[in-house]
Design brief:
The chain is an alpha/beta fold. Helices cover about 40% and strands about 15% of the residues.
Length: about 150
């Protein structure tokens, strides 16, 4: 999800030419708890390294239970992110959405309509605003994040 956001942002920023873009459940919109908007700017400014929860329900990653089980025991899974990383991601989401029309390479965007890790409406909006001749959407209505 964060990797997909970075790729979407890179491809629409036109920093370097790309030949193709493949996005899988990109974090192009996230649902934040109520009140987060007010707190996030303050935290990013005064405590940028403060860890903030990165809640992922392993049962909602995939319909395959083994994916959630592997996630639970993976020592590389991060349960928190820094306040400054959260702010960076939210700014990148806004900019990627605004710049979707700047995409210059063919894109395949794959997303699950039942994803609760990221908000799948962000993928729909990004796709809708990308150049029509460069975009392909693989939408899995009952699909989860993975």
């Amino acid at each position: 999800s964060m990797g997909g956001l970075i790729v979407a942002r890179f491809a629409t920023a036109r920093i370097r030419p790309v030949r193709g873009v493949l996005l899988s459940s990109p974090a192009l919109r996230v649902k934040l708890p109520p009140g987060t908007g007010i707190v996030r700017g303050i935290l990013s400014a005064i405590a940028p390294k403060l860890p903030v929860p990165n809640p992922v329900d392993p049962a909602k990653l995939s319909h395959d239970p083994s994916i959630g089980a592997a996630y639970r025991v993976d020592p590389l899974v991060q349960k928190t992110i820094s306040a400054s990383l959260l702010e960076f991601m939210l700014n990148a989401i806004t900019q990627a959405q605004q710049d979707a029309a700047r995409l210059e390479a063919p894109m395949l965007l794959m997303a699950g309509g039942s994803d609760t890790i990221v908000d799948p409406s962000g993928s729909r909006d990004f796709y809708a605003n990308a150049p029509e001749d460069l975009r392909t959407l693989a939408w899995f209505e009952s699909g989860y994040h993975e």
